[in-house]
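Key idea: predict the complex, not the pieces.
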Amino acid sequence: MIEQLILTVIMTSIPLIFAASGELIAERSGVLNLGVEGMMLMGAVAAFAVAMGTGSPLLGMFAGAFAGALTAGIFAFFTLGLATNQVATGLALTIFGTGLSGLVGAPLVGQAIDGLAQVHLPLLADIPFLGTLLFQHDILAYLAVIMVALCAWVLSATRVGLILRAVGDNHESAHALGYSVLSVRLLAVIFGGMMAGLGGAYLPLVLTPHWAEGMTAGRGWIALALVVFASWRPWRVLGGALVFGGITIMQLAGQARGWTIPSQFLSMLPYLATIIVLVLISRNREFALANSPACLGRIFHAGK
Amino acid sequence: MPAFFVDIGVGLKSFAIIKSLSMLFLSRVISFASPQLCLYPLPVDYGRWPLIATHPLEAFMKARPRLRTSKDTAKKTGAAPAGDQMPLLNASGVIKRFGDFIANDNVSFSIYEGEIHALLGENGAGKSTFVKMVYGLMQPDAGVFEWRGKPVKITGPQHARDMGIGMVFQHFSLFQALTVAENIQLALPAGESLSSLSDRVRIMSAEYGIGVDPDARIHNLSVGQQQRVEIMRCLLQDPSLLIMDEPTSVLTPQEADQLFDVLRRFSNSGVAILFISHKLDEIRALTSRATVLRRGINVGTVNTDTRSARQLAEMMVGETVADVVRKTAPADDDILLEISNLSRPRSTQFSTPLRNISLQARRGEILAIAGIAGNGQDELMEALIGEWRDANNGIMVIEGLDITHAGPTARRNAGISFVPEERNGHAAVPAMSLADNNLLTSHSLAGAVKKGIIDNNAMRQAADDVTTAFDVRLPNENPLASALSGGNLQKFVVGREIAKSPKVLIISQPTWGVDVGAAMFIRSAMLKLAAKGSAVVMISQDLEEVFMIAHRIAVLYDGHLSAAMDVTGLTAEKVGLLMGGIAASKGAEA
Amino acid sequence: MISLIPRKDIPLALTVMTPIMAIAITLFVGAIIFATLGYDPLEALYQFFVAPVSRSDQIADLFVKACPLIIIASGLIFCYRANIWNIGAEGQLILGAVFSGYVALTFPGLPAWAMIPLMVIAGIFGGMLWAMIPALLKTRFNTNEILVSLMLTYVAALLIDWIVRGPWRDPMSFGFPLTKMYVDAALISRIELPGIGYLGQLHWGVVGALLLALCAWFVLDRMLVGFQVKVMGAAPRAGRFAGFSPTFVTFMVLGISGAAAGIAGMVEVSANIGQLQPEISFGYGFTAIIVAFLARLNPLAVIGAGLVVALAELGGDSAQITLGMPKVVTGVFKGILLFMLLAGETFNRFHVEIRPSRSSAAKSVEVQN
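Result:
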């Protein structure tokens, strides 16, 4: 029972890990993309459609990543190419992604697919308790952790990460040193979209093997809050996502145990928790802004 | 003394530069570390370069043989080159347009090895555009650059650095959230690991006493330290041409002199220096030739010792420069504004705390608050406007009325007007009309708003009156503030406040980034206001301006404000020392 | 590569043309999407944008559909002008409906002259209350209002779901999640035009919506509080310099937009539904964001913008019935429209030049120094 519960918590947190660490990279470059929800939905519907069409959930996974990246490309075109307001453009992306995914997915409603297979890591999977929890997952779950590690390593230990941070910290200086601010941001946004797409793909490929309109249910927004919660540090995303996964699962556990609290209140928990977490993090300005990219949300103009 | 300094090979050049630069740092660091060496007590803030009038090391440096014996020992180096010498960089017919605006119109220019060459011009004359093209940040629309005689297309800053062009930016191009080593790494070619670079920086820092920890984050460094990081970053690239964009704007006169000393050493070792400034005395002291830009056109390259500062100014402006005449100090002892013991704690890690500031502004005078940027000017201005207030810190009284707790609106109602330093987004809203911008500071005054409803006609009329009285030139009938040029917008925001005939005008950097004509206009308007019986408190970094119009001068250093001194008999040197914190710390002890 | 050069002045024609061009391009892109999905694009556009308004009573219904959008957008404009990103109007609408529903359901005996005004006040209170939470958290703890207001929308949706399934469920509803029907005095009546009679579902709430938009325009354009909002949004530092309080403005704009959304919730239930149910809004709170931008944040233009977007909503229904197209198509349209409007803003502020890529340095956005 407890094993099953923890396993569910981990699985619930996977989409958040993908989406939040992708957004974290985009934000570190100075771009605030509020369209995570839209990108996740596009990833989810593409993954489901391709997995159903080809019968290969693995291809579905790639399709999800591709769709997310493509959706992010639209955002990049407007915010980077045409210097539109990032907040409003992000909203537009969510509205657009929700609509388009619903349109594309309309014929898919009610269909079912085989989800991604579990990959038992040799030896490790046989460890009692921990083996079940950590080493009997599907490939996406392992990838999520690998991606977090990759993000952390790239940010802190590579030149690419240094340039990314520099662009997010002061785009004028980065431009003056000859770095192409817009190219760096384009890549970061596309990467963020790819990750959001993978996070979205996890929903129909693993969590619930069917497609439903708006099936992300606000996970994209929670991922945005997670980035703040993690104060722009990749490893903290992992912890934060597990916390949110735990809170989400609490309602199921609560219902199973016959708690008398109405189910709606339990369902509110992730959203309320998000607000509480935002307050706790934001109230300490120094801490909240310690790693916050100085140029976040600012439009880049070379020259001045 | 070491013989190898006399004959420097190419490979040793950068070493020599670093060595000579480091002597400057060394002198400062030693003077800090061993106070007994110093003639004056030193301020506690080691971040700022302590100033030493005649330091023992100064004598030591003078005694050293010159880096290149072939050069004469005249004050100027790199005197006008011989005719047959090939220029290091030659630009011919360079044109750069932005839309229908021509920023550089057929500019030709050349600089030789070892030459210190000034690029002179008013704000907006095209200096920055030109050097940005040299540094590869922009591409010319027409014209050719030649590097050591060969035509070259400078595709980007990376390319420029590879060629041997380094640039120190006016507003440093440093990354506040990154460490010193990371900042340096970003300007160097890829390949060197951060730890190896950190070691190099640390070794160099220890060996030459630069005093900057490679792991320190930039936002923890003082302005002076940041400039050192910026310069160090340039030198590690081993440049043949060093571009410096207004480097003295963050330095006291004495610090500027020391920087010039270092620059002369660079030029002696063969480095060409392109020095951008609009300070004429500085240019005449340092450079041998100056190229003057006016509205994007090269109006001439001249030998600086053949021209007076006034002649250079006239080349720059294109017309005869009028002088502003200050009347003698007012006899009136009537105190209009009095501030006692205003303190303000550090609000962010970037800010300067204010320490026990007291001042009195008298009827009929201009009281100048001099000082280098970053010594608490912004914090003081916010406290004066009332954007920041604290019940327990300081008392502010205007004509017997206590306004310590009053916000900006109540302070305006009491008869004070303010002009903050930043025009765009502080003194004015760029995206709004002049009528709306007039409303910004008069919404609480009679006639502007009735029962919550704005009298738009009255505001339009008032804005028109200001533009007429202060000769604000408008690009069209009803422009947004952003459509006005810097000088015209400044005339508007100053005029807007003076038109209210305030008892006290508090104004910060009144002529910052403004062309000479507008600057003179604004200065005489301030003098007129004072002559009519108001008090003017002027925060200014421009010493020339301070001496031109102020009756009394106080100096802001590290959040301390010195006592105000009568301008008669006061020398720029003395004010400069105060700006460097020498007497301020003495004063604090007294 | 795209190069942006700031305009010195903005021609009036461009200001007017921007939204029109945005709509035109959206229709064009929409036609392409229809064609891709295998529909006849002309037929689809006809069903979408002409069929729903081919009769006079349908035009009246267009106003009814636009009513909540106009009300909410009139309020949201204050937020967006002040650079406060309230995207939780949907939740504020729900709370307005719940609070006004409390008045209607708890005091069914109130006289008609008191009932509607009290319900409006309750609706305003509910919407404001919900909007005050992000305002309080933002001013007190510097919390991001975008995320908080959105999270509260999810909470509000769950709240009303619980209310109509739990405490307020009509025992006679046969297990359906519905409250009792409102008494007649609590319903907003339809407009009866002399000589014509009822015109579709046209009700007095629509008149209220138009009046609210006018009020919003007056406050924003003529009053000092409106000026404060605009200054705070355009240059917060200049706002503090002028002596305006950012905290006050934050509370005010969120309060206004919350109140407007609350009114919209009250009107929607009272005029169209007549009782509380889990779904009382069809995403009006989100759609109104697009209305506000289509109006270029001008309250007078909100009326026209509300009608245009309402047409897209009705068109979605029409296309669903006649062509079997999924309802979400409207969302695609709305998303594209918002993209185009934002791009239009860029074309307003800059000369946009597209030229072949040159060197790496020239790839950046070049702006005159």
